[in-house]
Amino acid sequence: MKKLITVFSFILAITFNAQAQEVKTVSLEQTKGEFTQKGITLSEGSYVFNISNNNVGTDVGFVLVPEGKDVSDAKNHIKAAYVTKVVAEGKTESSNKVTLQKGTYKYFCPLNKTPQYTLTVE
Asked: What does CATH list as the number for 23-121?
């Protein structure tokens, strides 16, 4: 019985470790009026977005919308991609985990009034 519990615990630990490694981080930086990364290509999977505010002069955020959807309508936003807290100048904040499937998305910051950039998932 002890061996069975040990083996089960080991398998459980490996499973949790594998799941934790599946989430990748995408770091994006904003300067006044723009993102420094003008486009992103990712593979399908789960991501956390880290958004940095580099001397924008105002708080910033992050919005991700599937291409073809009205970006001005919040119901089309991928809410998990929102940063969990607005990003103050000189700070970095993160989104929740977002699972992206193949397709094209638009990302932008309405607070910093950035253009809409393309995120492609292959």
From this structure: 2.60.40.420
